[in-house]
Amino acid sequence: MDRWQAMKVFVKVAEAESFADAGRQLQLSPPAVTRIVSALEETIGTRLLVRTTRSVRLTEAGARYVTDCQRLLIELAETEAVAAGANARPKGSLTVTASAMFGTRFILPIITEYLDHYPEVSARGMFVDRAVNIIEEGVDVAIRVGDLPASGFTATRVGSVKRVICGAPKYFATFGVPIVPADLNSHRIVAATSTGSVLEWGFSGAQAPSILISPRLTTSTNEAAISAAERGWGLTRVLSYKVAVQLETGKLQTVLSEYEEDPLPIHVIHPNGRNASAKVRSFIEFAVERLRAHRHFN
Prior knowledge:
A five-stranded mixed β-sheet has the order 4-3-5-14-6, with helices on one face. Strands 12-7-13 form a three-stranded antiparallel β-sheet. A two-stranded antiparallel sheet has the order 1-2. 39% of the residues lie in helices and 22% in strands. The longest helix has 24 residues, at 60-83. It is an alpha/beta fold and 298 residues long. It has nine helices and 14 strands. A hairpin with a 4-residue loop joins strand 1 (49-51) and strand 2 (56-58).
């Protein structure tokens, strides 16, 4: 039995939830698909699929095995692409993840420009404000803001950003300017948070390394908090790239800059190391060059 072929057939059956549909996609007859999956189950020594007259579903062991098979098949395809030569033309589907605002504002333009250069590549931008599991969710490239946990991933630093406290000029004209972090307790604070009504903000070089903040207004998004600050309602604290345009135009101004914490690094990471496919290698080179040249990060 060709184990790689058997794994491909099993994965296709699991995805299609049908022996007949998998056979049509693979140009195999349903009996051939059934024989291959049965032989695979016999070799492994456990049932992978539960068959009924109306449905096909994974067993608990099958659910674990299909995830491993998908990963191994992707690694095999990428290894073959590397063996084809470093100059192989990029092609296939590329998945890139970043946080929602960063991805939409900075990574999406890079992706669309990249696709213009490489017509044989299609892309998916996964821009979400949650921790994406790169391996389990099939991500090729991730852009991370902040210190990275230990992992076996390859990371390339492209810049850094700061956490800044900012407000509109008319707010400062009405309520004054905080001089030290403790002054924030007497100011209107608007914060994007889902963790509760009291926040701990850290500072560098202050008498107290952190202070507790009780926002007068909390919002579910950074965009809303920034909008409230632009309107002159209060002060907010966000990563500098989120208000870079407003700071340049003077709609917002930063305060307590001398107490800012150390900048947070920005990395482009991918899980495949030297075995990265042509599409991943070329996209990383493309993105790194553009992000390193961006004035908002460097």
